[in-house]
Amino acid sequence: MNEPDPQNGGPEVPSDPSQDATSHAATEPKVESVQIADDPGGALPEGEGPYKNMSLPLVIIPAVIVITLLAIFALFVSISSSEATLEENLHEAVHGGKNERKQARFSLIRQLTANLEARARGEEPPNEVPADFGLAIEAAASELEDDGPEAKLALAIALANFDPERGATMLTELLKTLPEDDEAGRVRFFSLVNLGSLSIQGVESAHGAKDLALELLSDEDVGLRTVAASVLPHFVVDETTRTSLLGALDDQELQVRATAALALASLTPPAPEAIPLLTDMTGEAIWIEAFNASPGQFRSAPERLSYRIQAVDAIAKYGESTRELLEQIVEQAEDEGANGSGVVNAGRRALDQ
User: Fold this and answer.
1) Counting Cβ atoms within 10 Å, is residue 207 exposed (0-12), middle (13-18) or buried (19+)?
2) Residues in Cβ contact with 128 at an 8 Å cutoff, skipping those fewer than 6 apart
3) Which of 44, 128, 212, 223 has the most beta carbons within 10 angstroms of its beta carbon?
């Protein structure tokens, strides 16, 4: 990720921007998911938001709960290698000492992640899974006492990989965690991300989180508002969903507005009210303005380019009615030279469909 230019306070432009642009030209637009800093559990300076150390400009829920989300969650603590089995780690996660319980939970998550990654590669999973392990996880979760909601979240994510319906129910309950019990909003954030992924996979009980997601769309936490806007199109969509997402277009934070615009474009039919913001999102200016207002955001040129391309693809979902607009976007991006080539390619691709 490129750092801001300390001499002029602006974002550093890649030395070879055409390389970034062409990397998107032959492929589908990059899907942005959550990126966590190395130490997301550290104390935050007074008055700063809980997502200061997260890159959350746009959140698009991945279609799979496996691998990525489990690996992300494992970054909450430093995990040393363990020779314990899944069954041993699950037992230790409930009955060990305080530090041992935490270590065991995340060793368990890491082992499950390794199994899922192996299956994705067509290989034999390295960790043997006992029979009825999902039931054992659920029983272990019911025995947790004083470790707080993050401990239950780790087991809920694990359970969702063996019994998605019961895992989704457990994750939905975790969405009700009180803010004072949810440091930096992590429990509700990751619960909602996982519920969105499960919903995409057709897990019916995940849709039970819809009303809670609607509530989080107006939460004071920008990260929770962003992920709520991203998840809502994956639940059962009704007029309340559409109206709430339209309201999010007026959010004070660009990452929330932008995510809501992409969400509205994904509805059937797509909401035309999102087109003005989506159009702005295809240009560089809106991202630079947001960076200047908050230098921690949108500082990477390739990252900004990927969001611009997502906006072009979203506009294309409106069909023939936005063809002239896409032509204008292509013309404007051509004037940027190499910096706009990724947008040009995306626009031409859309016009050729």
Assistant:
1) middle
2) 85, 86
3) 223
Of 146, 198, 118, the residue nearest 110 (C-alpha): 118
Q: Tell me the β-bridge partners of 36.
A: 54
pLDDT digits (tens, 9 = 90+) for 309-330: 999 999 999 999 999 999 999 9
* In-domain check, residue 40: no
Asked if residue 345 belongs to a domain, the reply is yes
* Domain contains 7: yes
Q: Which two tokens stand for residue 67?
A: 């691998």
Spatial distance between the Cα atoms of 34 and 221, rounded to a whole number of angstroms? 15
Q: What is the DSSP letter of 47?
A: T
Evaluate if residue 204 carries a pLDDT over 60: yes
Q: pLDDT value at position 53?
A: 33
Q: What are phi and psi of 178, to 5 degrees?
A: -70, 145
Cβ burial of 182 (10 Å; 0-12, 13-18, 19+) is: buried
Task: Count structural domains, the chain.
Answer: 1
And the tokens for 311? 């906006």
Helix or strand (DSSP H, E) at 127: none
In a domain, 200, yes or no: no
Q: Which two tokens stand for residue 215?
A: 């509530």
pTM for the predicted model, two decimal places? 0.76
Helix (H) or strand (E) holding 35: strand 35-36
